[in-house]
Design a protein that fits this description.
Elements lengths: L5 E2 L15 H4 L22 H14 L5 E4 L6 H10 L8 E5 L5 H9 E2 L11 E2 L1 H4 L4 E5 L9 H10 L1 E3 L6 E3 L3 E6 L3 H6 L5 H7 L2 E4 L10 H16 L5 E2 L1 H9 L5 H15 L28 H15 L10 H5 L3 H11 L11
Parallel strand pairs: 2-9, 2-10, 3-6, 6-9
Antiparallel strand pairs: 1-11, 4-5, 7-8
Helix pairs in contact: 2-3, 6-8, 9-11
């Protein structure tokens, strides 16, 4: 039986909720919105076992000062998990400072993170307080920690071990009490083996690892996420969308979502723009079904087999070119680093005769 149409008119109007729906009710009636008040994780939508397992780990670690390493693909919501850890910690009244190690040129990252003194380098006309100091008594969230340059890693390790550092251009040691939550979509263990990441820093970061599941691993949450994003963008754009067709929900649930929640969010935003009436119209033409015919004569492949076949077919189409506007990563809607991570996990290797980027 296909998923029934989702009525938005009956849903409560809230922006950020943890929604829970008994699975047995999804196919029989419009999805009802329920707030898990005993959990209350702001901004995190879902009721799947995979998500609940992550939130149980958050509950365990939040009240401590332990360093947390969030691992998962791009777009899975690692920043939301970091925010949940901070908001449930004793530091919640202090700042949550967020810094992406991949968004800042490596030559500027040290200054941004640790700060600098006037005259420390050309152009340093004033003193600058770094993000680490701003996070004192609070939480520092370092996203894309795998992109931090090797030359900065000993300085970060010292902060974690000794709680002290010097600003760039200064000999004065400063002490700081900031809890670190780091996130990455890269395989840090492989990077350690290839001497691209310090092993001592990796072990110091990996005190309490949390694997954030990909959206395809929590597909039962997709109807809830769809409605959540429709409500959000409909209010934002002043649209009166009341119904999501059941066949649309079913198609979205079958899709593999290589770009995870971020890809779903972007698609729903576009759909709300395109929907001029009360029924959501989602452009489904570019979506490929998650479940595809098996090659061994069976009726269906497993999800992992389907994903492997999809990625393998795409990289072959691009002659194993991963990056660029016509590369496989762009076609799959993910970053190159995420694609490389998935290829390694799925055992997809380039032929040795292939010259590729």
């Amino acid at each position: 039986m296909g998923l029934s149409a989702v009525s938005l008119a009956t849903a409560r109007r809230r922006d950020t909720l943890f929604m829970s729906v008994p699975p047995s009710r999804v196919n029989r009636e419009p999805v009802k919105e329920q707030v898990c008040s005993e959990l209350g994780f702001e901004g995190i939508v879902g009721q799947s076992a995979a998500l609940r397992e992550v939130l149980q780990l958050v509950e365990m670690v939040a009240s401590t000062d332990a360093t947390v390493l969030l691992m998962g693909e791009t777009g899975t919501g690692k920043e939301l998990i970091a925010r949940a850890i901070h908001h449930r910690s004793r530091r919640r009244e202090r700042a949550l400072v967020k810094l992406s190690c991949a968004a800042i040129p490596s030559g500027l990252l040290e200054s941004e993170l640790f700060g600098h003194e006037r005259g420390a380098f050309t152009g340093a006309i004033t003193q600058k307080i770094g993000w680490l100091e701003l996070a004192d008594q609070g939480t520092l969230f370092l996203d894309e920690i795998g992109d931090i340059p090797l030359e900065l890693q000993p300085k970060l390790l010292r902060v974690l071990q000794e709680r002290e550092f010097e600003r760039l251009g200064s000999t004065r040691t400063k002490r700081v009490d900031a809890r670190l939550v780091a996130a990455t979509n890269r395989d840090l263990e492989r990077m350690v083996a290839e001497k691209q990441f310090r092993s001592d820093l990796y072990y110091r970061l990996n005190v309490f690892p949390i694997e954030v599941p990909a959206l395809r691993e929590r597909s039962e949450d997709i109807p809830l996420l769809v409605r959540h994003f429709v409500q959000h963008f409909a209010r934002q754009m002043n649209r009166a969308i009341e119904t999501i067709p059941g066949e649309t929900v079913e198609a979205l649930t079958r899709y593999s979502w290589p770009g995870n929640i971020r890809e779903l969010q972007n698609l729903i935003e576009r759909a709300v723009i395109l929907s001029t009436g009360p029924v959501l119209r989602v452009p489904l033409g570019n979506l490929r079904a998650r479940t595809v015919p098996a090659q061994d004569g069976g009726k269906y492949q497993t999800l992992e087999q389907a994903e492997r076949a999809h990625i393998l077919a795409t990289v072959k189409e691009t002659n194993w070119v991963l990056s660029g506007p016509n590369g496989a990563a762009t076609r799959l809607g993910m970053n190159r680093s995420t694609l490389q991570f998935r290829m390694k996990k799925l055992g997809i290797a380039r032929p040795w005769t292939c010259e590729c980027q």
